[in-house]
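Journal club side-thread
Mid-discussion, someone asked how the predicted structure for our own chain would compare to the paper's figures. Pasting it here so we can look after the session.
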Amino acid sequence: MFFTFKTVNKFCEILVKKVIVLSVFLLLSTIVLYPYTYRTQAFSGNIHTLQVLREGERYGTPVVDLQSGQAISISFDETGYISSNFHYKIIHCNSNWEQSSLSSMEYLDGFDGNSITNYDYSINTTVNYIHYQLSLPNEDVQFKVSGNYAVIIAKDNDFENGVVACACFTIVEPMARINATISGNTMKEINGKYQQLQIDIDIDQLKSVNPMHDFMLIVKQNGREDNQVTLTSPSSILSNKISYSNLQELIFEGGNQYRTIDFSSRYTYGSGIDRIRYEDGEYHVYLEPAQTRADKRETYNIDAHGDYAINYQDGEESDLEADYMWVHFYLPLEKPFLSGSMNIMGRFTGNIIGEESKMEYDFTRKYYYKSYFLKQGGYNYIYVFLPKGGSQATQIPIEGSFWQSSNQYEIYLYYKPLGSRYERLVGYNIVKN
């Protein structure tokens, strides 16, 4: 067969188009197979104290009512002298914190992104920083649906190479009433190391035709992700009520009260702190060596369930006057754990197990250690052990575990009936013992 130049050129054009289509298909397949999970975290070494809160609150879980008019406040500090040009984009997520199938027009009324223009410079601090703050919703954007949201923050509007942080929060449309109880009488033992939840939910307003499959329940203990529980169906259904009872999945370690440090003042610091020193142009907070509490239940600590609050005792504007200090943690042990890793758990470490939480062992001084660059305030934390190959940490080796310990359980109910394109968050409640 004789091919002309025109025929060959046309053949090449068709081949290129097929390669492009195949490449796009493979890319989309990769996105489906390996979805990205969003969580609140900073990606730049210059970004610190990334907080996502209900506006007006100093700490707590960032969950607001869709119709309440209450706003979410996202704030962070960038160390340095010169302000940056930050922009943000809003992404709607499913219950697993992966991007949902909704377009921005379906979940937002207004712009899905804009610049962050609210910022101020630190005042009389040894570490210079610029404090940025963003409120959502605002005059540029309103939320139309409930669910999980991730806000991506990028420098100079460069969302390919300039992303510096991700801030996550949740919006609920309260259509289901959640009731829960915590008991030391568990399926494992009675009044021992564990706590068990019993959850009953009134779903009358939702008129679900298939309640066994329409709902997903997520339970978090003190905001932790490693022992989070996800239940895809209730244990029983009775009329307009679904229940989650007598389930092994709803048994949690009681743990111990969280440890607390408070360095909101350089001069009158709280218990647990050995000394604060100014060294080489920065402040250093040296904590007292931690004692194991495996056989001792704490009853007096101020327990914020792993949270923290920025505070500067000697001024009026903590967000701008609080200084940054290096905080040094020490956990003496004669021998390291060879069967796993020791970690510090709290909201300031992201409440996850990873490089941010993992401690190192000093074989000469015989202790675990870890240092963090933290803004002045009060912080809750605990020591947890993660076995090799495991995904869930335990408090038992260092902190112990007691059924009487105070814990906070956050309960999320998602609703996705047949034909729905996204998961609505129709119920949220916090229960404490």
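Post-session note: Helices lie at 5-33, 104-107, 211-214, 318-321.
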